[in-house]
Amino acid sequence: METDTLTINSIISESLKNSMTYAEYRNLVIKLVEEKSTTGVDKSENLVEYTQLNDRRMRRWDKTAKVSEDIKSKLKNFDKKVTWLVISESWCGDAAHIMPIINKVAELSENIEYKVVLRDENEALMNQFLTNGGKAIPKLIMLDSETNTVLNTFGPRPTVATNLVQAYKAEHGMLTPEFKEDLQRWYNKDKGQSTIEDLIHLLG
Q1: CA 91 to chain centre
Q2: CB under 8 Å to 55, separation ≥6 — which residues?
Q3: Nearest CA to 142 among 199, 79, 84, 197?
Q4: Domain ranges of the chain
Q5: What is the pLDDT of residue 204?
Q6: Rounded to an integer, what distance in angstroms lies between the CA atom of residue 39 and that of residue 106?
Q7: Do 129 and 142 meet the contact criterion of CB atoms below 8 Å apart?
Q8: What's phi and psi for 85, nearest 5 deg?
Q9: C-alpha 14: how far from its chain's center?
Q10: What is the mean pLDDT of the chain?
Q11: Which CATH number fits domain 5-203: 3.40.50.970, 3.30.930.10, 1.10.600.10, 3.40.30.10?
Q12: b/e code 145-180 from CB counts within 10 Å (16+ = b)
């Protein structure tokens, strides 16, 4: 049974109350690295290590990600007030490559507010925005800032990366560790440009 609009609106409102800014999220991840911990229910050693790795990735993208002049001018002309509510966890590799890029774009428009919530703490929200039935993150929900109406979504990966993943799964049945390494290399080579293109497309 589909959840009615009223329920979705109240779930979104509740999640926004629990949300943090990107800067607060980065500070949280830094603190978790110091404490040798991670966000989420599962505090396994693997996920703690992923959080440490992702802090380094995010630090790199925060410093080096670039937005072209063409994209900057498109963002200057964007005049609708929206909120980008992103569901994430500190251990998620895709999120570490994507969230700093979302921040770079959001910073260029006073009409885009960027908020972050943690998946395991916002289960009701996550369940409304599944990808092929799974709780894939990061997931960006674009909301009308005045009404909290859902306008569009993005994630868990940029379109180009999604196509690479789907093609590999179709051929091999599952994602191997080797493919996951290749995907990390793709992110490094792409430098966030595919994510930026998808985000601009999202704004319409």
Answers
A1: 12
A2: 29, 30, 32, 33, 90, 96
A3: 84
A4: 5-203
A5: 87
A6: 24
A7: no
A8: -95, 115
A9: 19
A10: 95
A11: 3.40.30.10
A12: beebebeeebbbbbeebbebbeebeeeeeeeeeeee
Distance (Å, rounded) from C-alpha 89 to C-alpha 40? 6
Residues 125, 129: Cα–Cα separation, whole Å: 7
* pLDDT of 3 above 70: no
DSSP string, the chain: -PPPHHHHHHHHHHHHHT-EEHHHHHHHHHHHHHTT--SSS---HHHHHHHHHHHHHHHHHHHH----HHHHHHHHT--S-EEEEEEE-TT-HHHHHHHHHHHHHHHT-TTEEEEEEEGGG-HHHHHHS-BTTB--S-EEEEEETTT--EEEEE-SS-HHHHHHHHHHHHHHSS--HHHHHHHHHHHHHHTTHHHHHHHHHHH-
Structure tokens at 167: 């093609």
The residue among 153, 140, 149, 15 whose CA lies nearest residue 80 is: 149
pTM of the model: 0.95
Q: What is the pLDDT of residues 152-169, one digit of tens each?
A: 999 999 999 999 999 999
Q: At which residue do the structure tokens 């979104």 appear?
A: 12
Structure tokens given for 130: 């599944």
Which residue, 59, 6, 4, is CA-closest to 30? Answer: 59
